[in-house]
């Protein structure tokens, strides 16, 4: 991204008692936004261990703060770049500095934990995926971790809901972070949540209203979400 550099063209015509006109000022070229390397390795978590995962589509999303002259106000720009993990599972992006996440995409796999960083220098960030048909927990469980329960209130009390899906968004609506499913008791675990960052929780289950709530975390915590029937 380029930052506009506007320098006025100044001339002096017939001033200074017959002095020669001043040389025009040549505008400086726009400055390049600094870039940093974001790289790492994609691992598939299997029962008993994990192996490098080749051929996984990855998208890096980074937030760049941009500004413009009044009456325009400062605003965020979302930059997205794509790549594919190599034979050894490794990937590499060259990105502007700022908050960044990496999203993995595979028809047969799901991402286990969020992969987030505040990109200021060259950074290593690994990504873990697991089979959708036989999902495994992360053996590393990167911080921060949020647990909770998706439930409804019945005449007999609180009941956890099987089959609820939780879609999370990062810093703004329509900016997907990761999706995870609750177990048969409605309980879920979300790992790799970036601290000091707004995260939206959007819950889906057939026959129920889908609540949408924002939270910000500074340490491990818990978020229970109540569903009501349509």
Q: Which key features would you list for this structure?
A:
Immunoglobulin-like; 2 domains; six-stranded mixed beta sheet; 21 strands; mainly beta; five-stranded mixed beta sheet; 230 residues
Descriptive report:
With 230 residues, the chain is an all-beta fold. The chain has two domains: 33-131, Immunoglobulin-like, CATH 2.60.40.10; 146-226, Immunoglobulin-like. The chain is 0% helix and 50% strand. The two termini are 46 Å apart. The model is unreliable at 1-31 (pLDDT under 50).
Q: Spell out the CATH superfamily of the largest domain.
A: Immunoglobulins
Q: How many structural domains does the protein architecture include? A: 2
Rg of Cα set: 24 Å
Q: Under the CATH scheme, which architecture of the largest domain would be assigned? A: Sandwich
Q: Strand-and-helix sequence, N→C?
A: EEEEEEEEEEEEEEEEEEEEE
Characterize the largest beta sheet: strand count, sense, and whether it forms a barrel. Answer: 6 strands, mixed
Overall structural class, as computed from helix and strand content, comes to: mainly beta
Mean pLDDT, all residues: 85
Percent of residues in beta strands? over 45%
Globally, the shape reads: globular
Number of strands: 21
CATH class of the largest domain: Mainly Beta
CATH topology (fold) name of the largest domain: Immunoglobulin-like
Unreliable residue stretches: 1-31
Q: What's the helix count?
A: 0
Q: Helicity, in percent?
A: under 10%
Measure the end-to-end span: 46 Å
